[in-house]
Specification:
The protein has a domain at about 220-325. It has eleven helices and 13 strands. It has helices at about 45-50, 65-80, 105-115, 155-160, 205-210, 220-230, 235-255, 260, 265-280, 285, 305; strands at about 15, 20-25, 40, 60, 95, 125-130, 135-140, 145-150, 165-170, 190-195, 210-215, 310-315, 320-325.
């Protein structure tokens, strides 16, 4: 596995499968290897870190992150190819996945990148909501405005809609029960909500808006290895290999969750919380483990936050739905 600069000669291809998209492994040009990981670097960082004034410049894009964009892109294509008399409304989405896998850092940032590079005449505005901040990207004037405070700032988006301007919202649920207001998305706007599987963050909004879920898998082992190669690209090969073995050992215990396997302090805390959750589990809590699988909600089964991860599976109607799976270290033995 090596690092190359520039755009790859061939990226991932996805095909429609029922109501969703899946990676098409049958499409590959002869002699052109697909990338395992794309890295987008921004000198200014990405909005999900601006709240803490951090400077995380890299956005890791794997085929699962690209899949999210392909679904959104398909909606945009249908929207802008529709006739005015069709009164077509873009479909809102709720992007759901395990905390710490990169929904904000990777998928949210990559959506922002692609939306900002989308045709400015068709889609002149993009707004990124996170915590108490709203970042308004005006692609026509090439400016970014920051709004802070309560939900009254959402009136800015409504006013743009009332003036006939089209745009897209990325709503990153940074706090529990931080559900979007009834006014989002406004008329003529698309929207993607980013959240862990806590129904208090999105359930009512999904009902009101008619949104569809996009379930996002954790990165695969090869994806994580590619991240290690990138992060240690300037180090000797032996040091790269040693780093990968450390990360792989941690991944085998807590699962492929970048937030924890790349940060020793967070990893140690995660392991302690896993053991504590299992050791203190009562009979009634253990009964909650029977909810493991399809359906389930972390709102009702808090043990899942430390013990499980979300896995995307094919749904009954050719769509997709999420499935809870225990991480390796904390599979309950009681």
């Amino acid at each position: 596995m090596d690092v190359r600069e520039g755009e790859p000669p061939q990226s991932w291809r996805h095909r429609a499968v029922g109501d969703t998209f899946e990676k098409d492994d049958g499409v590959q040009q002869s002699g052109a290897a697909r990338p395992r990981l794309l890295v987008l670097t921004s000198d200014k960082g990405w909005p999900y870190t601006w709240k803490e004034d951090e400077s995380t410049r890299d956005c890791h894009v794997n085929c699962e992150v690209e899949r999210v964009w392909q679904i959104v892109k398909g909606d945009l294509t249908a929207w802008f190819n529709s006739l005015p008399e069709d009164h077509f409304t873009p479909i809102p989405h709720a992007l759901i996945g395990t905390p710490g896998i990169g929904k904000s850092k990777a998928a949210g940032s990559y959506l922002l990148y692609q939306l900002l590079h989308y045709d400015a005449e068709q889609l002149p505005m993009v707004v990124y909501f996170i915590a108490d901040r709203k970042f308004l990207f005006d692609k026509t004037s090439k400016t970014v405005s920051t709004y802070m405070g309560d939900s009254s700032n959402e009136s800015v988006v409504r006013s743009l809609s009332d003036r006939g301007m089209k745009g897209y919202i990325i709503y990153d649920v940074a706090e529990p029960d931080d559900e979007p207001s009834d006014d989002l998305p406004p008329r003529g706007w698309g929207m993607a909500l980013v959240s862990p599987p806590l129904e208090g963050n999105y359930k009512e909004w999904v009902k009101r808006s008619g949104a569809t879920e996009i379930d996002m898998n954790c990165p695969g082992e090869s994806d994580v290895k590619a991240m290690c190669v990138w992060m240690r690209r300037h180090k000797p090969v032996r040091e790269q290999a040693e780093y990968w073995q450390v990360v792989k050992g941690q991944m085998d215990e807590v699962g492929p969750i970048p937030r924890y396997i790349f940060d020793e302090r967070k990893y140690d805390n995660w392991v302690q919380r896993c053991h504590k959750t299992v050791d203190e589990a009562t009979s009634s809590v253990i009964l909650q483990y029977t909810g493991l699988g399809r359906g389930g909600s972390w709102d009702r089964m808090k043990v899942f936050y430390w013990l499980a991860r979300v896995v995307r599976v094919r749904g009954e109607n050719s769509g997709s739905e999420f499935f809870f799976q225990f991480t390796g270290l904390c599979s309950p033995q009681k």
